[in-house]
Design brief:
Layout: H1 3-38, E1 44-48, E2 51-53, E3 65-70, E4 81-82, E5 87-97, E6 102-110, E7 113-122, E8 129-138, E9 143-148, E10 154-156, E11 164-172, E12 175-176, H2 206-224
Antiparallel strand pairs: 1-3, 1-11, 2-10, 4-9, 5-8, 5-10, 5-11, 6-7, 6-9, 11-12
């Protein structure tokens, strides 16, 4: 193949790649917006328990003060969160430990299984706030709740909100609800000459396309020289 034909092919491939990168942003945004509408928007909740969780079993713990419940997936009647859509969720449990010798154990329960143990222990007159996190992939309809084991003890005043249970949908069907799309990216390999590599970063607009074409033509001139 002649150098002129090689240059022509190089310029065409470059223009096509840049065009793909320029239009990828708006198309990805439309895709994310469509997915968000299909799943009914954001899913998140934040609930607290007022009073003392004494040294008995609570299964589930019913967090009766609901501060946020977007998506209406948490029930303050049962204490159970039910996943409205399949996806990756993150849950957080906090508890202010009672004073005295307590072996505190709480479990993140998913579909009736003990998915994670939250353990904390203090002695004497000490007290501290214990925080535990769980990230899990759920199917639509999967229930999640908190269970307290016998011997555990936590307390909260009417205004402190130191016993809480919260959760948020991070991603559903490959689409991040926090913005952006995980597991993908816009890339387009460009031909290289010898050991020279061209890395083009494009935000959007005609100026980016023209500058990239100019670089391609300059490389062609070097090849023809």
């Amino acid at each position: 193949m002649s150098p002129i034909k090689i240059c022509s092919a190089f310029v065409i491939v470059t223009v096509l790649c840049v065009t793909r990168l320029v239009v990828a942003g708006p198309l990805d945004m439309i895709s994310r917006q469509t997915a968000a509408r299909q799943q009914g928007g954001a899913v998140l909740f934040f609930a607290s328990y007022q009073g003392i969780l004494r040294e008995i079993e609570y299964n589930p713990i019913i967090f009766n003060e609901v501060l946020v419940n977007q998506g209406s997936a948490y029930s303050n009647d049962t204490g159970v969160f039910t996943a409205p859509v399949a996806g990756i969720y993150q849950f957080v449990f906090t508890a202010q430990l009672c004073r005295g010798n307590h072996n505190n154990l709480w479990h993140f329960m998913v579909k009736g299984d003990q998915r994670m143990v939250c353990h904390a222990q203090v002695s004497g007159g000490d007290t501290t706030l214990n925080t535990c996190y769980l990230m899990d992939e759920l199917k639509k309809g999967d229930p999640v709740w908190m269970k307290q084991i016998v011997g555990s003890c936590a307390w909260a005043s009417t205004i402190s909100k130191t016993i809480t249970f919260s959760g948020v949908l991070l991603a559903s069907e490959g689409v991040s609800t926090l913005g952006g799309k995980y597991g993908s990216g816009s890339s387009c390999p460009l031909p290289s000459l010898g050991h020279t590599k061209s890395i083009v970063s494009v935000s959007a607009g005609q100026s980016a396309t023209l500058s990239t074409v100019a670089i391609a033509m300059l490389l062609c001139l070097l090849l023809l020289d």
